[in-house]
Design goal:
The structure is a single chain. This protein is an alpha/beta fold and 367 residues long. The protein has a single domain, classed as Alpha-Beta Barrel (TIM Barrel). It is built from eleven helices and twelve strands. Strands 1-6-8-9-10-11-12 form a seven-stranded parallel beta sheet. The longest helix has 21 residues. It is globular. One of its GO terms (molecular function) is 5-methyltetrahydropteroyltriglutamate-homocysteine S-methyltransferase activity. This is 5-methyltetrahydropteroyltriglutamate--homocysteine S-methyltransferase. It is an enzyme of class 2 (transferase).
Length: 367
Amino acid sequence: MVHTKRAPFKGDHVGSFLRPERIKQARLQKEKGKISAVELRNIEDEEIINLVEKQKQAGLQSITDGDLRRAWWHFDFLEGLVGVEGFEADQGIQFNGVETKAHSVRVVDKVDFNDHPMLEDYKFLHSVVGDDHVAKFTIPSPNMLFFRGDVDKEVYPEEEVLLKDLTQAYKKAIQAFYDAGCRYLQLDDTSWAVFFSEKGLKMIEERGQMPDQLRRLFVQAINESIADRPEDMTITMHICRGNFRSTYTSSGGYDAVSETLFNELKVDGLFLEYDDERSGGLEPLRHVKRSDLKVVLGLVTSKFPELENKENIKARIAEAAEYLPEEQLCLSPQCGFASTEEGNILTEEEQWAKIRHVVEIAEEVWN
């Protein structure tokens, strides 16, 4: 594999993997009281060890725990924050005709970060990855609570106060993960998609806000959260349009907020979805003015098993290189394989074929 000194890597990935059947069954047994929480965690530990080895065998340099302990890519983390709780909603989230389980999160008290359970999850991952690879951990962007969460207005009558507490909580979280050994942290964010389409802009209007006002708040949430990160910690962000059972929630290109995403956000890298026409063209990359920003092109889909034509992927990388230097580009799947425990509609072997495909193309392009 092509190695660089620092993440993101030339052949990288978003993070989540299909849940092994053994974990799915163990989780059901835990719900029925047939096994204990300790027994479930032991099974998760064993499956994560297996997953780590499979990622190494596939040629990846960044290694995650695949979200194998999570039911949701975002709710599990958010529910671990002080002042936030999960609840069963009236209905699930609509994904292009498919609906998720009815679950959400709400802010019921002042938000803070303290003794989060995922710190232990990271420590375990770090302990099994080893020194030759980089343990990568993913958490939802603060915007996922700020924009998507159900907020008790008696606790936070003003958004600006919530934003202040939330960013302070994320600063604590980032330092805590760093202290646990994390040097590669990824923020996952679906909220930016509201700027990509008329449907999204209407949603902003229904909230009683203006797009430029919300854009500034989103930038503030990200930049203030990561402002104190140590110099040797890489923080990237994955901008997503939804990923559930191989479906999606939104469409549209990056044009409307490209200058904001590429130049105002202080992240080290951006994972961008580019696997089909839903994501628009590569032209917005012309707005990248930062020589230190890495752009990870999600040109390989995680939603379907068919392997993309290698030459077509290389041609799109070459097209992207017309807008910014090739050394600033990387390649990955457009999203994870299982943003929720249900997973996308492909087999584990098809999943690994996709990962190997990314690694092989990266080797051929950047060697």
